[in-house]
Amino acid sequence: MAQGYRIGVIAPNLDGEYYGRLLPHIHEAVKQRNSELIVIRVADDELGMNALEEPVSFELVDAWIVILPSASPKFLKMLSASKKPYVCIGFPSPCPRGRSVLVSNRASMKQLVLHLIDHGHRSIAFIGQTQQYDLYERYIGYLDALTERGIDADERLVVRTMGNLLESGMEATERLFASGVTFTAIAAGTDLSALGAIDYLNTHGYSVPGQFAVTGFDDIHQAKLNYPPLTTVGQPFVEMADKAVAEAFDLIAGRGPEADELFIPAELVVRTSCGCEEEEKLTPQQYFDFHRYNLSKMRIALHHVTVNNYKVTQRLIAATKDERIHISKLLWGNFHWGFLALREVDGQGGNRLVVSQTFSKKGDPLPPEGLEVPLERFPPVGYLPKSTGPGGDDCIVLHPIRTELQNWGYLVLAGPLDEMGDFVADDLSRHSFTILAVALERELLLKQTRSMAEKLEVVSRTSNDGIWDWDLAAGTIDWTIRAHHILGGVADRLLVTPQKFIELVHPEDQQMLRLAFMRPFQKDRPIQVELRFKTMEGHYLWLYLAGDVLYDESGVPVRMIGSITDVTDKKMNEERITQLAYQDALTGLPNRLRFKDQLREAMAERDLDGNRLAVLMIDLDRFKIVNDTLGHQVGDLLLQRASHMLRDCVGDEDIIARLGGDEFIVLLRKVENVDDVFAVTQKMLDALEQPFILEDQPFYLSASIGASLYPAEGEGTEVDPDTLIRDADLAMYHTKENGGNRLEIYVPAFSSKRVERFNMETGLRYAQERGELTLHFQPQISLSTGKVYGAETLLRWNAPGGKTIQPGEFIPLAEETGLIVPIGQWVLEQACEECKRWIRAGMPQLVISVNISALQFQQEDFPDIVRRVLKRTGIEPYNLCLEITEHTAVQNMEHSVKMLGQLIDIGVKIAIDDFGIGQSSLYWLKKLPVHIVKIDPTFILNMIEDSDDDAIAKAVIEMSHNLGLSVTAEGVETEHQLLRLQQLQCDRIQGYYTGRPMTSDQFIAYFLEIHGGMGM
User: Mind listing the UniProt keywords for this protein, alphabetically (predicted)?
Assistant: First the structure.
């Protein structure tokens, strides 16, 4: 067995689920070979480090193990040039000479995704930081699985994150939902990202694995403890460590590699988050023991965290009592021996390290302070504790000490690796590294002219952001580097004295600041003040300034030390929160809350002076059509312009607010009588009649307005703001139901009308499931053959109690409430089912016509809905005709042309209904891909007596025929109308003369009677 070698490990951290599980196994494998271990810890976000760059310990180490890309390209290049053996863990060696121990990330992720596909999932999302090698390999494995099963990769299902922790998983899942992409499973690059995804899903009401399956990668402790337990891939830490150490010793011995890259298989760990039952079957006692053990570990870990945090605080207090911080007074966890070596440059420009401070808890010998050691032979092995020697239980840890100003040197520690390091990231010694680095920087900048203990003591009571130090005797202020950054460079030139600082404070805040500076001289009254400060660029920052006075041994105040914090964002957020609480974000108008406050004040004023006020509720008519056809962006612009126009119609003291959607509310603070209300209302209606030009198109609005007065005539009950608003709302609805574009003043009778409408809406919501909706069918007859062409589907509502509610009453309500969408789909499905009955009854060529509402037509997936209905009912596309009104078709021509084209591609027929009463023109018919034009009944009713109606019908028929379209005339009630339409060569008719609306069974009998019992 090889022995007596020194193995160097370069790692970002010593603890956590990855390093905390891998490093102890590496140490154990080195011990088994009677060798010693040096670990160089390089990652420290606070100190701005992420990779080793210099050849520290280069001549001492026989072989290197690099965990993840923690050695810079510069260091690896030096390794390659020196012929030093090295092994990379978790990433491919960038140099040909290095070996790599890699986990089979790609194959394992592929196996995991195939497992999800076998569960029936085909829309599987991937979340992870794909810039990292192992995460990128897992992403490629995800793609491999999709390719193997013939699933097209959808880039929308891939969310690339900046990290791999819980927050990254939560953010990625939120982004998936926000994108609108459909997914049923998530394959996360790490367990923590997977747990974050599960947490997001659970907190938003989704179940895992009921609605979504989630898998991870790494098999961390939390994976098994989570609910549900996480399906994942276990990292083979023992095999990785053993193989990396074995490879290092093979390279030392000169044994050639079998392969440059050695892949360690990773095991698929199936639990329940994917939808499986756990493969590992445990008895109830085993479950109890398992959770009791892990809860015990968690309790111990949390106890360690609590105790260590307390120790950090206590050590910091102890360390800052002296002029300089000594490393023996900082927290180093399990490490019992160490020393600090500061960098010096010798006469030849070479680097050397000089021992500056030492400590030993067990009495082990220490290197003498002042000992000089070359960087390449650092640390001095002759002074290291025996416990770190070959086969020893301790290892040596090197940590660079660095700040923005310079590279200070290294801290060397000796001790065992923390046994809890794999369960929780609790290496609080990293705080000591940061404290030590900051202390060295401050000692250099301030030239040890002030006590670090005093400064840190004050900072611990205030805010550790930018630090200021006011020498009361000299009358000057010093600022730290961070304070310079906050103040935008002003401190470099102007802020030498307190007066200079005060001069740059906003004039309104200067007196407050002067008073604040006087408080610390009174006992227990430190400075705590927020103020505005002018920067070099001329704009103001909000600063939080805190501080206190320091006294000498005689009790004389000598210095005032404190901190400054940039709280500009906090103040802006406070203002924004206040704004959001009282202001509508879109229009800038007050919102409901602000309006009610103003209304309450105005009512109190009217109670005192005896005058009256009015509340106007305004609802923009037809606004929903703009939103549905041109989109919300154009709709928002229209709302903004309408709000400005309405604002111009009221007085300066009056209030107009937006309640949401297209509803506005107005407070007229003082009115003499009802005529004043009508005058303001008419001004608004006249203004809205002016065209709004949006996207080069004119839009015309009108409004339904309701008003309530306070106090009302003969009012005997107490009225509050909510009652006034409700009454104005009832009056507005009464206006809308009667055609809109005018004002109604509230009267008590409106309340009962509103109750009736509410009852109808409630009944309509349940009419479908109660079986109260039925279909009737009105025949359509071919004038050239006299045969039945098909039938139009008509909806009827048989309400409880035997009352039949006419479509003209409930269809507008269904459209307004959105109920028309599910009702319309039910009508489409039932009509196609009835058509299927007709075909079975010997009527194969009949066409069933179904009216489509504007809301249904705006659904992007409406063509898919039609396809599914045809497939489910089994009728052919040519058996179905979809009717849309002329008004719906021309609202958004681009959308209509696209949607109708998709429907025609399916093979269904398209009819334009109610043609002639809207914007009828040859232009529209030329642009729209349709088959049939239906003449509105209003032109058929009087066509015999009215030559204008006859001329319109004739023109529509001729124009449609010239475009290759067929024509159906609706509302035919007399023989004269039929004969005239035959003369005009109309294709088909529909009306009471040839057949009233009838049930499906009646229609079958009607057809068989006309066709003599024979099919068409």
Answer: DNA-binding, Transcription, Transcription regulation
d(CA 518, CA 504): 19
- Token output for 320: 């800052």
Closest CA to 619 of 666, 674, 555, 561: 666
Helix H or strand E encompassing 883:
strand 880-885
Give the three-class secondary structure for 13.
coil
Scanning the structure block, which residue is given the tokens 């086969």? Answer: 391
pLDDT digits (tens, 9 = 90+) for 332-368: 778 899 999 998 866 555 678 999 999 999 999 999 9
Burial of 299 (0-12, 13-18, 19+ CB in 10 A): exposed
**Cβ atoms within 10 Å of 343's Cβ, excluding its own:** 18
Contact 603, 721 (CB under 8 A): yes
CB 732 within 8 A of CB 705: yes
Q: Which residues of 709-732 are buried (b: 16+ CB within 10 A; e: fewer)?
A: bbebeeeeeeeebeebbbbbbbbb
Task: Supply φ then ψ for residue 479, to 5 degrees.
Answer: -125, 140
Q: Which amino acid is at 568?
A: T
At 886 the pLDDT is: 76
Phi, psi of 379 (to 5 degrees): -85, 165
Specify the DSSP class assigned to residue 611.
Answer: -
Query: Maximum Cα–Cα distance for the chain, whole Å?
Result: 124
Task: Compute the C-alpha angle 173/178/179, nearest 5°.
Answer: 100
HSE-up of 879 (CA within 13 Å, CB side)? 23
Distance CA 888, CA 989 (A): 23
Q: Which residues are paired to 340 by β-bridges?
A: 357, 411
Question: What is the per-residue pLDDT across 616-644, written as a single tens digit (0 to 9) for each?
Answer: 999 987 776 666 666 777 788 888 888 88
Distance CA 402, CA 397 (A): 16
Does the pLDDT at position 509 exceed 90?
no
Report the b/e string of 160-170 with b at 16+ CB within 10 A.
bbebbbbebbb
| Among 97, 104, 174, 166, CA closest to 134 | 104
Token output for 523:
């006992």
Sequence-separated (6 or more) residues with CB below 8 Å from residue 424: 15, 301, 302, 304, 305
Strand-strand pairing, 742-745 and 702-710: parallel
φ, ψ for residue 202, nearest 5 deg? -65, -45
Three-state SS for 670-689 is EECCHHHHHHHHHHHHHHHC
Q: Decide: pTM greater than 0.85.
A: no
How far apart, in whole angstroms, are the C-alpha atoms of residue 505 and residue 508? 8
Cβ-Cβ contacts under 8 Å for 854 (sequence gap 6 or more) = 625, 628, 815, 884, 885, 887, 888, 891
| pLDDT tens, position by position, 54-96 | 889 999 999 999 998 888 888 888 888 888 899 999 888 887 7
Torsion angles phi and psi, residue 844, rounded to 5: -75, -25
pLDDT at 93: 86
Place of tokens 């809301």: 855
What's the distance, Cα to Cα, between the start and end of the chain in Å?
96
For residues 443 and 445, what is the distance between their CA atoms, to the nearest angstrom?
A: 6
